[in-house]
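Hi all, long-time lurker, first post. I run a small reading group and we've been trying to get comfortable going from sequence to structure in the token notation. Rather than ask abstract questions, I figured I'd post a concrete chain and ask someone more experienced to write out its structure so we can walk through it together at our next meeting. Sequence below, copied exactly:
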Amino acid sequence: MNARSIGVIFLFLLWGSGSTYWYVCKIKGFCQNQPNTAIKTPEKSTDTTSAVKKTIKHDLLYFLWGQSKVKIADTTRWQAEIKSIKQLQAEGKKLRIESPYYNNEPNNTTYDNLGLARAEAIKKLISKDIDTNLVMTRGQLLQGSPTPHPYYINAYKNHIRWITYNNFVQEQDNGKTAIHFPLNSTKEIKNKTIINYLKGLSQKIKSNPAYNILVVGHTDNSGSPKANKILGLKRANRIKKVLINNGIDADRIIVKSAGDTEPVADNNTKEGRQQNRRVEISLIKN
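-- Answer (accepted) --
Happy to help. Here is the structure in token form:
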């Protein structure tokens, strides 16, 4: 092999080595000097609030944690909802707003609890559409102390509803309904408000066989304990009669009398005695 051939072969090998180096190191980047250390995994975010923000679905009305300013998720849908709420307004009814709160939420308001402050904020929100004299507000304490805390506190679904609340029929916070009577009254019930309420209750009970009705008569302290016990029972039986007339089986109605032993108001005032003259109705599982 002559010197010329050797030179050509040498140049070819040199060109091949250079090309390989250029492709592997410069283009692919495999020849960079890197320290022999483990690749660090990105640290997980400790911002639990941000994580909760992404996972919790808030209601049409909601509140931020520890705040009393009401938030509207969808203004257009809320306008439609407020119209629907207004259409359900009826004589003898009031709009109850129960706004939830947790015990471990900071309360920087002037109200006794953050739930009541939130309810009042919703009351103000609807004041242009609904007479605030028809609105009742209260806080609803949620059980537990969630950790991490929820970023949103839902406050619309199941928290705003019309209830029967007037001089004769009052739906209570404890799930009971109080029906009030005039002094010494045990006569047949003819009040339309009471009759209409009992009619609606009867329809509800007939479609739900899992429940019976407990009817308990109460009195003020005007008479003797023995007389009041009898009077309370007579009042309870008047309610039972109306329920039976609306199609409820008698064996689904439990009647009792507490007489004057369970007052809910001061018997030393006329208004208090009126509140104590009542029959309380509640649903119990049979």
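A couple of things your group might point at:
The CA atoms of residues 96 and 136 lie 5 Å apart.
The first strand starts at residue 61 and ends at 64.
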